[in-house]
Specification:
Elements (H helix, E strand, L loop, with lengths): L7 H11 L17 H16 L5 E8 L2 E12 L4 E2 L6 E4 L2 H14 L21 E3 L2 E3 L7 H6 L12 H10 L7 H8 L17 H13 L3 H10 L22 E5 L2 E6 L19 E3 L1 H12 L3 E2 L2 E2 L3 H8 L10 E3 L2 E3 L2 E3 L4 E3 L14 E4 L5 E5 L4 E6 L8 H13 L3
Length: 414
């Protein structure tokens, strides 16, 4: 059920009751430089998405000039249980986990305990034996894989679905992401050939999960514990974790896919693997969380590494996250045949370097990413804008981002 503009007073009262005093206050759009009339188009678009059964429900949250000026919910979090979407609904955020894990690793860099140019084999010795799948067989990499390669997706690892046959065969046989913990995963991956020499190409893959194992080795903590210490507790991200506590399952959204007969449940809350504790802490795609929690993470990034007086990262480190770190003549980032010209990559986020043929509504300098269940976020420093959209539909759909981006940018009043 949508929280409509004319219920804005009720919205504020509801949020005050359902969310604690630690929340970022919700401010009327006009007071933060957002056009109420343009934002009404966001409501119209999202209502159509629900009515057309493109999504069961969703959330759109917008920060401008450091304040939340829009936080609306739409449709249902669980159609089968007839439960409306709520501001504190918990979502599977999948690859939105990556920026969080990268930021956690960067806290170790800031502390002098981890180096971006360190070979990964320094922390995972079996990676010294990695091979590249070349046309004439397996060979040693031209140079060692580094921590920075993991963060930039230039490490040569994929998700096993793309790359040379030798990579795919090893991946399918060893099933690294079905391991019981990150140590076991890393050992398996040391026997999976790389798709290319580190630093010579870009391929989306399991690198951030390996980074999670590096964090464990350096910190001495399991990844879930370290994320709590380094990120979640300082930022008061109270609902972000690798599983949903039993007492909070009632806030957990169902996950859907589209079919010719409408939406079909593919992961019901109580039956979900996220409803059970885990020992495999996937830093690349295993977290659940709320729009509110992720906005606090992005607000920390926007404010140069600190939030509410607590510093999480150095300002110069945040700059590495939010600016392109690929070479000037770099290969475009791509997913199979889908290329994204004008898009580079920082330490944790994609970064728009210029506007070309992909995502024409984007702005230069914009950074962001998404998750497999169609959750998404982007931030534009020059516009002082952060946008988070949450829904649960697989496979990933671009509808919400592409449908809302121009509307939201047009709502920004200079």
């Amino acid at each position: 059920m949508r929280i409509t503009p004319f219920l804005s007073g009720l919205l504020l009262a509801t949020l005050a009751l359902s969310l604690s005093a630690a929340e970022i206050p919700i401010v009327p759009p006009a007071k933060v430089g957002l056009s109420k009339a343009k934002l009404a188009e966001v409501d119209q678009f999202m209502e159509r998405q629900v009515a057309d059964q493109k999504i069961a429900g969703g959330i759109v949250m917008i920060s401008h000039k450091g304040k939340i000026g829009f936080f609306h919910t739409y449709g249902q979090m669980d159609r089968e249980a007839n439960k409306p979407m709520k501001p504190d609904t918990i979502f599977r955020i999948y690859s939105m986990s990556k920026a969080i894990t990268t930021a956690a690793a960067l806290t170790l860099c800031d502390a002098g305990k981890l180096g971006l140019d360190d070979p990964v084999a320094k922390y995972i010795p079996s990676f010294a034996n990695l091979k590249v799948a070349a046309q004439d067989g397996l060979r040693a990499p031209a140079r060692p894989m580094t921590v920075k390669d993991l963060m930039l997706h230039t490490c040569g690892m994929t998700y096993g679905n793309v790359g040379p046959d030798a990579l795919k065969e090893s991946w399918n046989r060893l099933k690294p992401l079905e391991s019981t913990n990150l140590a076991e995963m890393a050992e398996k991956l040391s026997h999976v050939p790389l798709a290319f020499d580190p630093g010579t190409d870009w391929s989306y893959g399991v690198g951030i999960d390996v980074l999670g194992r590096v964090i464990e080795v350096v910190s001495g903590d399991s990844l879930d514990v370290f994320l709590k210490k380094a990120i979640f507790k300082p930022l008061d991200m109270r609902d972000t974790a690798f599983s949903v506590p039993a007492e909070e399952i009632g806030r957990f959204a169902a996950n859907y896919s589209r079919s010719t007969n409408g939406l079909r449940v593919i992961d019901a809350p109580h039956a979900s693997r996220y409803a059970k504790p885990t020992t495999f802490f996937s830093g690349g795609g295993g977290l659940v969380g709320t729009a509110r929690d992720y906005m606090r993470f992005l607000a920390m990034v926007e404010q140069g590494g600190k939030l509410d007086g607590k510093r999480v990262l150095k300002a110069k480190t945040v700059k590495l996250m939010t600016s392109n770190q690929l070479p000037p003549d770099a290969f475009p980032i791509y997913f199979g045949k889908e290329k994204r010209p004008g898009t580079g990559f920082g330490l944790g986020f994609s970064v728009r370097t210029e506007i070309k043929t992909w995502d024409l509504a984007g702005h230069v300098g914009e950074y962001g990413w998404g998750g497999a269940a169609s959750t998404h976020y982007w931030a534009s420093p020059k516009d002082k804008l952060i946008v988070i959209t949450m829904e649960q539909i697989m496979p990933y759909q671009w509808d919400t981002e592409f449908g809302l981006k121009k509307i939201i940018y047009d709502a920004v009043q200079k």
